[in-house]
Every structure is written in structure tokens, then in C-alpha cells.
Amino acid sequence: MVKHQPLQVYEKQVFLSFVTGIYGCRWKRYQRSQDDSSQWECAWFLILCSSFLLLLFWAYFWLVAQNDFNDFNWLVYNRSGEWKDETIPILTSTTLGLSYVSFLLILALFHISLGQQLNLFWVHKIGVLATLLITISGIVSVDDIWEDELDILLISFQSTAPFLHIGALVSVTALSWMVAAYVVRKERSNFQLMVLVIYFVSLLAVCLAPITFTCPCIMDRHTLKARPAIIGRRGAPMLAPENSILSFHRALQLGASTLEADVTISMDGVPFLMRDQTLRRTTDVSRVFPARQFQDASFFNWTEIRSLNAGTWFLQSDPYWTVRTLTPKDRSRIANLTVCSLVEMLRLSARANCSAWLNIHKPPPEHPRFRSWFMDTLRVLQRAGIVCFQVTWAPDTDRGRVRGLQQAANEKLSLEEIRQRGITSVRLHYSKISHRDIQEYLANNVSVTIYPVNGPWLYSLLWCSGVPSVSSDAPQVLRKVPYPIWLMSRGAYSFIWIFMSEPDCVGQWRMGGMQRCNPEQIMLCAVGRRPSPDVNIMKEKLILSGLMALSFPLGEESNDEPALKKSDY
Fold first, then answer.
1. What's the chain's Rg over C-alpha atoms?
2. How do residues 323-381 score in pLDDT, each as one tens digit?
3. Cβ neighbours of residue 475 under 8 Å, at least 6 residues apart?
4. Residue 222 in this model has a pLDDT that exceeds 60
5. How many degrees, rounded to 5, is the angle at CA 365 between CA 359 and CA 369?
6. CA distance 224 to 217
7. Cβ contacts of residue 404 below 8 Å, gap of 6+?
8. Residue pair 191/99 in contact by the 8 Å Cβ criterion
9. Which of 25, 103, 341, 507 has the most neighbouring CB atoms within 10 Å?
């Protein structure tokens, strides 16, 4: 009888060395282990997963918050007094952190699927912990400075929920292989049962998730309303200084139907355009009037205001990273800009036959024009020669004195209040109104304007909701959106939902793959990690049967052993 020695084949395991080397600095074969991971390493794996999920949430937040980067920088400016793009370091650190943690998580999943013991290198532990703490501190800081912005997450789900749902189904399906491998390789235990229960509950939740969200863009194409009109919010502030005459010219060239401006009253009763409370950010007041740079803008007379330069700051700070796209002629015109008066802006609107939307900043009580600011503004409207019904006055004050002008509310009101005040339109932040509110207003002949709308995804979402007009800082971006980014019928989405949630397809495919294996191979895949005599015998039998099948044709005999028959396999 022939005795067979156990075969030991040492092959180069380049991929395994790469995975264990980078994850745990275990490059040599003798450093690796297939024993169970310690509770401490399992805890670090959970920390790694938590860091990944938190960073994924953080990255998604900043992805959809691009719509409001200008407002974020403005809030930071009001706190720090310095204008700079604070989103660049945040986006850079988030991208690097998410890439780093994702790479480590992929390596950890390879460890689990290959049956290797988890042993995260101490340098990576410090990196993961630092990334987690920085992300948490960033979330806390944004919640303090920009608390209302978190509402954009719920709004963005109306646009991205179908795609996030499909991605979640794919991820859960991919994890099923790892869960199945863990259950098969391990001995039966309560923890194993808990893992299975958690997985199936998560799978059920993902499959039923579409019941919980509403997507306006899941609709029939023939019910899509007209493209929302674009209002140039302070003109086109990404291409020229905000509230400047050049900015309004750019907005008209980009197809804006209405020009929106912020109006402040000077000491001598001249309405001019200024968003900030002071002149520091958008003029060179710190150079011309250094002692008065922190003074309220309305406490300057028009002569002093007109002497200030209102364009150099845009070229120097480059707030939207667009200066490099300007021609030398445009840069020269911007460098010589002065503060724009209301009458200049209204005359431009009258020549272009477009509407004007005025956000009036009332002067403080100690201002000399506190009681006459209203008449000062009306006189300018008459001098500009613009038709009254083309001017919208906001906020909704002095209703009895404003005759012939359109009056809008900047707050969410009930239909009864709107009728009592005689308001025909509302201008609301996108986070303050829901899809149902929009439909209710439109059904009662109340025009709705949503601001700020700078991202194509938000513009498409509001288009599907039937919003007639949006106020935007980026008309050059929205101009390139001739149709909603995506539009899907309910029948098509229901088919995709059912098809992606159908488990039988995956199950049949797996069973088909298992039927191509012989019994010994199936048993070898199902055994535990620790070797045993039975396992060694089974391995030797498989190797010997393969060698004999190659050496001797089926049915022939050798001098030492009888021919192997098909029944022996």
C-alpha cells in the first residue's frame, strides 16, 4: 500500500502580503494568523466603520451644500471680519480623510473574506482616531455657524433618494458574501445569529425604503411644467462684483428675467445697492475712510459712497475662482467700478424691459432719513421711468402706501393671511417650504419664488415641483440646464425597485455556481479555519485524484494501484 505524505506547497501570496502588510504591517508569512480577531481589534474595526459612515455623511453634506457656499463664506465673514473661501480647506481635508478611511475599510473587508486576523497598525489607529475627531468637531462647528443648512440634507434626498436606494441595495448584496462566509466558517453561536438578524433587518429596511420618501421628479413627462424663470440675485455675482451695474448687465446677457438688488438709504436720502451692513468687504473704505470702516453703510452720504472703488476687492479676493476666466477688458472695467445707485439699476431694467425685485433695508431709528426713506425710494422709481407693475417691493410693509407695485412676502404665510394682505407672491428660502406647500400656493394663484438656487440638482427638483421662478447667484450655471437632470415615470421606478429587491435572482445564481463544485470542494469551503486530520486527508485525496486523472486515462491501471474510477472521486 502506498503511503502519501501530506503535501505542503508554499506559494507566493503577493495579494495577501499586500493586504496584511498595508493594514497591519505584517508583510511576512509567519506574521499572519487565521485565528479569531481579538475583541480589541474588533472594536477598532467598528471605529473604522463608524469613521467611514460619518465621513460619507460629511462628504455628502458638502456635496449638496455647494448650492450655498457663498452664504457660508458670508456668515464666516460676519464673524471673523475677513473674506476668504473657507470651503477649500474643508473640502480638501474631507476628500483626503474619506479616501484614507475607505482604503483601510476595504483592506479590513479583505481580511475578513480571506479569513485573516484583524490587526490594525498603530499608525493607522492614530490616523483613524484623528480623522474621526476632526470630522466630529467640523460637524459641531457647522451646526453652530450654519445650523439651518442641515435642512438641505432632507431636501436633497428628494433628488438623490432613488440612486442612493439602488446604491444601498448593491452594497447590501455585496456584503451578503462576507456575511455568508462568516457564518459558514464559524462555529454556531448566539453572536452569529445576531449578525444574521441584523443583516436581514437591514436588508428589509433597504428594500422598503422607497415607501418613506417622495421624489417630485418621479412623474410623467407630459405633466412637466414650464422651465422656471431665473432671477439674477444681485446680478451675476460670480462673474462681476455683486450689486454692480456690470453684474446686472451680465445677468441680462445670461437670460435673467428679473434683476434682484439690496437697497440701502444714504444719509442724504439716495438709495444705493449694498448687501452688507458696512462697506468693508465690497469697497476700499478702509483706505479712503479708515476711521469709519466699521460704520454702518447708511451713515455715509452719496458723495462719499460714490468716491469709493467697488471692484478691486473682487479681483483681489477672487471669491468664486472666476477671475482667471475674465478678459483683460472685463478686468479693467471691474477695476474702475463704483457703488451702483438704485436709479441706475432701474433704468437698466426699464431699457431691457425686465422686472426688478427690491429688498429694502430700512435705516436705523437714529438715521436722519428714518421717516422719509419710503418717499425717497418712490421718487427714484418715478425718475427711473420703469413701469410700476414690473417692480416687486419686499418686505411686505407699508401696504397702504405702496400702490401699483407688486408686493411679496419673505416669510411663509397661510393662505388666509395672504388674502388679507393682498399679497400675490412669496419669496422663500428653499428649506422653508415643502413640495406640498408649493402645490397649495400655486393652486390658489400665489406665485412662488425660491432662493438661493445655484445647483443644477436643486433647479431640476424645483422645476419638477412646478416652481415658476428661482433666485440665483449663478445664472450662468442654470442656463446650461435645458431639462431636469433626471425624470422617471412611476412605472419605470417601480420596475427598478422590484427588480433590484428580488432576492431569487441572486439565490439562483449562487446555487448554479455551487452545482459546478464536487462534494469535497464544497466541504472544504465550509470547514473551520483550524486544520484537522480529516481536512488534510480530504486535501490529499483531491490533489491525488487530480494528479492521477492527468497521469492515467480513465479505466487504465498502473503497476502500483488500480485505475481510478469515476465513483472514487
1. 34
2. 999 999 999 999 999 999 999 999 999 999 999 999 989 999 999 999 888 889 989 99
3. 230, 232, 236, 251, 254, 255, 256
4. yes
5. 70
6. 9
7. 388, 389
8. no
9. 341
